[in-house]
Amino acid sequence: MTQPISGVSTLGGVLTNAFGATVALWILGYLTHIPGIQTPPAIVFFVLLVGLLSASLIAGRSMRRGAIGGAYFGLAIGLLNLLVLGSLLTTGAPDQTVPRAAIFVPGWLLISTIIGLIGGVVGSRTAPAAACIPNWTGRFALVAVAATLLLILAGGVVTGYQAGLAVPDWPNSFGYNMFLYPLSRMTGGIYYEHTHRLIGSLIGLTTLVLCAYLWIAERRIWVKIFGTTLLAAVIAQGVMGGLRVTDQSIQLAVIHGVFAQCFLAGLCSLAAITSVRYRDRAVPESHAGASIDRALGLIAAFGLLFQTTLGALVRHLGWALQLHIIMAVVVAAIVFIFALRCWGLYEKIAVIPVIGGALIYLVGAQLMLGVAALIVTGIEEQIPAWVQVIATTAHQTTGALLLAVTTSLVVWHFRLVETSPFAAPAAEARHQTGDSAPATSAS
Q: Which residue intervals of 33-135 are DSSP H helices?
């Protein structure tokens, strides 16, 4: 029987879909405006319109609230995208908008609301019957993870092109309000740095709204406090990024980059904590090897954090390359063993083997990307700059994802598994007495 959809659930559906669609549209917008790629405005408009229509249909299917839910979604995504559309409304002078701004803003909000309404109606009519309300808290946390991964990717591009100081002031951009800096002036390194700031503002807003929604929808007080801690962290990260510009501090650039990856790991942990399986799992499975794997997981997570710090020193200061290479082998081995044990020893707990398997692939991908980054940066004169940027940024971003997934796996392990030193003897005793019941898993 389908459960009634409450006001809190409707709010969660609107927020999750609106922020998720905004992240997807910003990715499309970012790619179509990269310097050197002259995408015609008509094509950009068409791509973004198709993206908005698709997002509206998906939102309508997931929320199942018809015209009302779709209209709320459309209005929300319209408001969120004003963060970037302000770049089309500014004249040549800072903070002076063009006359059509008074018409453009309400017109854009009306159009996005109508598109959302259409998507809500069509999507809800084509949606399959659902037995339960979606877990919007967990999905919203996953949206925040995806948005932060995009920010780290954009930050890697900034570092790759050495564009961290391309915009010399903060929080303004060349005297303009950050959200009103003209798109026509976003060229070269300015584009990479300024869009990084805009994406950062989206992450800050996402975390703020997610934190507020946790206080409304989440029952566990410690989860609310954790969400608030992440909000404080993203505020500190934003201030740190600004001070890196105003003080021109390369040391802050290193800390800023490492802290971003820690923040991603925190959000990934929040996504795990707010999932239905984590919340509803009453009794953890007993496993004799749990204490070994917990220790391995913690060592792997801290090893990756250390390796991330070394990577930041290499990228920003050119230091510690040899140590970074040596530690890559050591840390990769530890993470691989942890992932392999989680993949092979916990077949009765679906989440842990799945994440463990994904972690195995990530370790392999990261090692190959590290070799690729080392090669292309070692022969700079023969390799185009954009190839170097892609290789080093992919290596950095995969490293961030590796740390986040490892941290998430440790969190899952502590929730779903408990140490049981007597599991193996108990299984042997049952075997000796002829009991054919399945034995508890042991390492």
A: 41-63, 66-80, 82-85, 101-126
Range of the domain at 158: 139-280
Task: Say what the pLDDT of residue 358 is.
Answer: 97
Whether 177 and 212 share a structural domain? yes
**pTM for the predicted model, two decimal places:** 0.91
- How far is the C-alpha of 443 from the C-alpha of 287, rounded, in Å? 7
Q: What is the DSSP string of 205-241?
A: HHHHHHHHHHHHH---HHHHHHHHHHHHHHHHHHHHH
The answer, yes or no, to whether residue 428 has pLDDT greater than 60, is no
Cα gap 393→258, rounded to integer Å: 14
Number of Cβ within 10 Å of residue 249's Cβ equals 14
The total number of structural domains in the chain stands at 3
- pLDDT tens for residues 46-99? 999 999 999 999 999 999 888 999 999 999 999 999 999 989 888 777 767 777
Q: CB-side exposure of 392: number of CA atoms within 13 Å? A: 27
What mean pLDDT value characterizes the chain?
90
Beta-carbon contacts of 31 under 8 Å, excluding residues fewer than 6 positions away, are 37
Rounded Cα distance between 236 and 232, Å, is 6
45 exposure class (CB count in 10 Å sphere: 0-12, 13-18, 19+): exposed
